[in-house]
Amino acid sequence: MFEPIHFISSDKRFELCLPGELMNQVLARCSAAGSCETGGILVGKYSKNQRVAEVTAISDSPEDSVEGPTVFIRGIRGIYRWLQTLWRSSSHYYLGEWHFHPGLHTKPSTLDMGTMTDIARAEAYKCPEPILLIVGGNETHGWFFYTQVTTRDGAIVELHRCEPKKS
Question: pTM for the full model?
Answer without folding.
Answer: 0.92
